[in-house]
Predict the 3D structure of the following.
Amino acid sequence: MSPVITYALLFLAGVVAGIVGYLVGMASLVSYPAMVALGVPPVVANASNTVSLIPGGIGSLITSWDRLRQIRYYPLLPQVLIAVVGGLVGGTLLLVAPPGVFEAIVPWLVLLATVMVALSPWLRQGAANYRLAAPAFLTLMAAIMVYSGYFGAGAGVLFFALCTLGTPMNTHAAIVMKTPMLTLSNFSAAVLFIVQDRVDWGAAIAVGIGSFAGGYVAPLIQRLIPERVIHAAVVVGGLVLTAWLLFGR
């Protein structure tokens, strides 16, 4: 396959990843397999994928900033610090831990989060204003951010479940909230991968340009989709991701 076709396919994968990542939190389910299928080694693809998805988060943030400023359940600074440090810890684990160290448990975490998201309308009945204490929320968030920096597939589902079950956020607010946090986690892990020279820059740039375009239009698309449809899409995507983590990697 010619390099032009390869990079064009990676760009298209990035566009889809940017949209899917914003709406249902599963960008890596699109972009990571695309990189591996087109010849990037798995560990390098993982690092390159982390770098490539940052523009998608930035693009989404540009068009959703006004809505993000309206979400004020916990202080923003601690969340920012946890996202950055969590990404660094997760990225370090990817570089130093034996391959597959999390593979046994991650699919089940994603499945649990997916089931909880599916049941959230019933779990939240009578508790519309329920909110986790800040230490509990931030501790759970820290674990998700570490995983985001390590591999990240399904991190959006996990954070979505935390926001919708642990706070009064509705589906749309949870989607807006997870974007900057996961982008910060990816950014700090990406800096580590760049310093360690683990990035395929051709693949990362092609997917990154596409993910910026997809991430930029995704908040506009979100406004046109009913909340129950997005909720269902997260559940279906979570089940697909669980199957891929168990059988397809």
